[in-house]
Amino acid sequence: MVTRPLNPIRVGGEVDALCTKCELNLAHTILAMVGTKVIRVRCNTCGADHQFRGTQPLQKATSFAAPKKASTPRTTAAERVVLNFEEQLKQKNQVGARLYSVKETFKLDDVVDHPTFGRGFVSAVRGDKVDITFRTFDKTLIHGRTPPPDPAAS
Ligand SMILES: [Zn+2]
After folding, report:
1. Which of these, 47, 50, 82, 105, could form a disulfide with 148 (CB 3.0-4.6 Å)?
2. Residues 94, 50 share a domain
3. Could you tell me the distance, in angstroms and rounded to a whole number, from the CA of residue 34 to the centre of ligand 1?
4. Are residues 81 and 135 in the same domain?
5. With bands split at pLDDT 50, 70 and 90, how would you rate the model's confidence at 61?
6. How far apart are the first and last CA of the chain?
């Protein structure tokens, strides 16, 4: 009396298995078995031989938690300006800082103390106007309203 196996799996037969190359559950031809256990299979789609792993939910491989985003400390534009300003001001001759006045004549890199805006330095001279960089902003101010001392005198 022949007992018909419930499981018709046999070498040369077909079994659904996860193909590691196709990355899909596909029909495979059984290449090797130990007892009732399928050992090696060949993908009917791509022809690759590989170990039988059964069918697997594919999302398992990719369902790992996404790495937590490293919170990069963000420097705001204002902070950058301040840092930049401090750095730049350090390089100026602050001992020679002068109080801002329209009657004064400033030149590039002069350090200026402004009664309202605080300490800054001249970043550009354009005729009777000077661009002064203060801590958080630039300001165009008028200068040289009286004739400057003769530059040849020095
Ligand atoms: Zn395949």
Report:
1. 105
2. no
3. 22
4. yes
5. very low
6. 124
Number of domains in the chain: 2
CA of 21 to the centre of ligand 1 (A): 5
Cα(43) to ligand 1 centroid in Å equals 5
Residues with CB under 5 A from ligand 1 (ion): 19, 21-22, 43, 45-46
The full DSSP string for 30-72 is: EEEEETTEEEEEEETTT--EEE------THHHH-SPPPPPP-P
CA–CA separation, 87 vs 126, rounded Å?
24
Distance 58 CA to ligand 1 centre (A): 14
The confidence score (pLDDT) of residue 15 equals 92
> What average pLDDT does range 77-93 have in this prediction?
79
Residue 83 per-residue DSSP state = H
Q: Indicate whether 113 belongs to any domain.
A: yes
The pTM score is 0.43
29 plus 88 within the same structural domain: no
- In which domain, by residue range, is 87 found? 77-146
pLDDT computed for residue 2 by the predictor = 56
Ligand 1 mean position to 35 CA, how many Å?
24
